[in-house]
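2024-03-11 09:14:02 DEBUG pipeline.ingest accepted 1 chain
2024-03-11 09:14:02 DEBUG pipeline.ingest length=485
2024-03-11 09:14:03 DEBUG pipeline.predict start
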Amino acid sequence: MDAEMDELTGEEQPMMPKPSSSSSFSSLLRYNSPLAQVLLIGLVCFCGPGMFNALSGMGGGGQVDPTAANKANTALYTTLAVFGVLGGGIYNVIGPRATLFAGCSSYVLYAGSFLYYNRYQNQFFVIVAGALLGAGAGLLWAGQGAMLTSYPPPDRKGTYISLFWSIFNMGGVIGGLIPFILNYNRGEAAASVSDGTYLGFMVFMSIGTVLTLAILHPSKVVRDDGSSCTNIKYSSVSIEIVEILKLFLNWKMLLMVPAAWASNFFYTYQFNNVNGVLFNLRTRGLNNVFYWGAQMFGSVMIGYLMDFSFKSRRMRGLAGIGVVALLGTGIWVGGLVNQLGYSRNQMPTRLDFKDSGSAFAGPFILYFSYGLLDAMFQSMIYWVIGALADDSETLSRYTGFYKGVQSAGGAVAWQVDVHKVPFLNQLIANWVMTTVSYPLLVVLVLLAVKDYHKVEGEANSKGADFSPAIPAFKDDTAGGRRKCI
């Protein structure tokens, strides 16, 4: 082990060693490995947020009138903006299991509120459930973000992010199949989904809530070399309040704000005003299968690029941002061409995947591409956040701040649609916001993301014996393993 660590910290070997396929397989089998825990949180999000995404992707929560869903989503993203920022601190105080359990259980209530609305057409319960889900989702995503960015080895963060994103979005794929199958033969007159659709979502969300009880505390998660994957310091409410307030003056987080704001803003336009307007009920369900399936493909693409494209971590970050920027520009150009064909004042005839012939192909490919871009954009952001620090405490606050800003943007976006802003204006706003974020992320990578050998050199010049990018170790004879310090 000591020889291996010497190799890691020597100038000849600046990069972390590549794990073999056998070690990866053993990590998968070992319950307390980072890989197993990331896969587990992926399953939790498969059942909770994944199914929520499928429900939202129906447009209007599966209802003919999107007003109730828009109001619920406004309440959701408003409380999520608050609890997203606070979630990292709460996670540091009460730990992952309680945080994730409280968060995932709120998804069940939200799906149940639409079942109630389907029968009684009462918006109040849906709006309250949306607000409660915002609080719960803030907790869930803060915990998920801390695990996803701090558990992986430094040179495998893109791979772990893509694995999580693929499992998580499989929830959207399965969730899209539920309304597609249950509403396949309901005919053109059907506008809202059946009760069974909402019940199906609730079953999956309940399973995800139970799975959170299997999540381990970070101090019990051990890498293949015997080291704890993160340094745990038990926090307090007062400490977390101070540290969270500091985030609003942290230049790294300020550079992240435009990307965070844009990263959920486009959902309203894509779900309500592309999928919800252009396609009939059963086709919307089918489109969701491919939208979330595209996310699985996109996350794998960007994850591979940001882990393996260059030896330099900084160059990998810049390459990832460049690829997403170029692809995103092309997709938004396609969206503009599509949007010029209809408006709020000239609504199109709804397309069906079987009956509309070639007219279906173009809008379908565009919607698929939107899903691809979403995964690549958000996976890229998570990679950048994960490259800013190594400890779970800091990263839980960073990801919480990201989700908070993201959700504030989402809350505004749903209200934009409630106030009937023209479709074209919404598209242009989304395009501009994502485009502005790219150069700021480039600046962040250039200034804050360091290569392993450069970090070592700075640490050694200051007389330090450890690197923030490569964990140092001390012997723990009582624990029988080596721990990060």
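2024-03-11 09:14:41 DEBUG pipeline.report The mean pLDDT is 82.
2024-03-11 09:14:41 DEBUG pipeline.predict end
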